[in-house]
Amino acid sequence: MKPALLEVMRMNRICRMVLATCLGSFILVIFYFQIMRRNPFGVDICCRKGSRSPLQELYNPIQLELSNTAVLHQMRRDQVTDTCRANSATSRKRRVLTPNDLKHLVVDEDHELIYCYVPKVACTNWKRLMMVLSGRGKYSDPMEIPANEAHVSANLKTLNQYSIPEINHRLKSYMKFLFVREPFERLVSAYRNKFTQKYNISFHKRYGTKIIKRQRKNATQEALRKGDDVKFEEFVAYLIDPHTQREEPFNEHWQTVYSLCHPCHIHYDLVGKYETLEEDSNYVLQLAGVGSYLKFPTYAKSTRTTDEMTTEFFQNISLEHQTQLYEVYKLDFLMFNYSVPSYLKLE
Ligand SMILES: Nc1ncnc2c1ncn2[C@@H]1O[C@H](COP(=O)(O)OS(=O)(=O)O)[C@@H](OP(=O)(O)O)[C@H]1O
């Protein structure tokens, strides 16, 4: 072979090697950025590290400074237990839970957590966190998950999807927690969101039309058809009307925590409160062993329902209706240690 031909072949081989190296590096760089985008801190959110479960962390804290928090949570658990005991002594209703009652209990197997979600108590953000925790690296930043995706039931596993022995095992060994809010503030939050926002058409159609038909004398045809201008007084009248719950259970946005999470049947290890939402949420994350890199999303919304706003909404509610409404939500008030609101004039 001529030396010139050999030289050309050598150059060809070198070119191919350089090209292959460039292509390989390019693929590696893309791969690296994909991983970094999903998990910028390079932390493995997948599975719990170490041998201590959240339950062990909660009941036997290693760090001494946690003991004050532990005492606070013990008091909240005792309050639930005492209220349940007092209620069972006076109530004739006694029943066993079925898997159907466990639809609100979201399970994270990797960190051994069960979260009972209560709508209007920042459950969207907690569902986002549960997706990060149970997503095995699929998500890292909760706020990158759109709110509507957090509410797609297929994106989270709930306790009713397991067999009875699996349910019992998880109820026994996982850390069970929920978040609660002052019941009437939660109700005003639900009313404002579902009945005063133009875009919530499905709620107007499904509930608004029914409420107006039942509660408004001389309603216009348009109001009966659209159901989009329900007044707070009408909403309250609907909630205290005995027909309402006889017809079908309350919608989850105004259903009591007692009925959604069954705190007298399920022993919750941790009761978080909306009033200390970020602190309590970050405590849960710390117990789950992810607190150093996963935080509860902070919030700057200025239109949040406040105590003052709730007081205003209740000003137009009659004494009789206030008393009847308190009866509907009484167990939630007592169980989670919310005092009778000062604006309430009970009969
Ligand atoms: N981080 C943080 N801090 C304080 N408040 C927060 C936070 N995240 C959500 N929220 C408030 O929670 C209310 C919405 O709750 P949900 O997500 O459960 O609503 S829903 O069930 O999905 O409709 C809604 O309350 P209102 O604004 O009073 O209606 C949100 O403002």
From TrEMBL:
Keywords: Carbohydrate metabolism, Glycoprotein, Golgi apparatus, Membrane, Signal-anchor, Transferase, Transmembrane, Transmembrane helix. The lineage of its organism: Eukaryota, Metazoa, Chordata, Craniata, Vertebrata. One of its GO terms (biological process) is negative regulation of transforming growth factor beta receptor signaling pathway. It is found in: Golgi apparatus membrane. This is Carbohydrate sulfotransferase. It is a single-pass type II membrane protein. InterPro entries: Carb_sulfotrans_8-10, Sulfotransferase. Its EC number is 2.8.2.-. It holds the Pfam family Sulfotransfer_2. The gene is CHST11. It is an enzyme of class 2 (transferase). The chain crosses the membrane at residues 14-33. GO terms for cellular component: Golgi membrane.
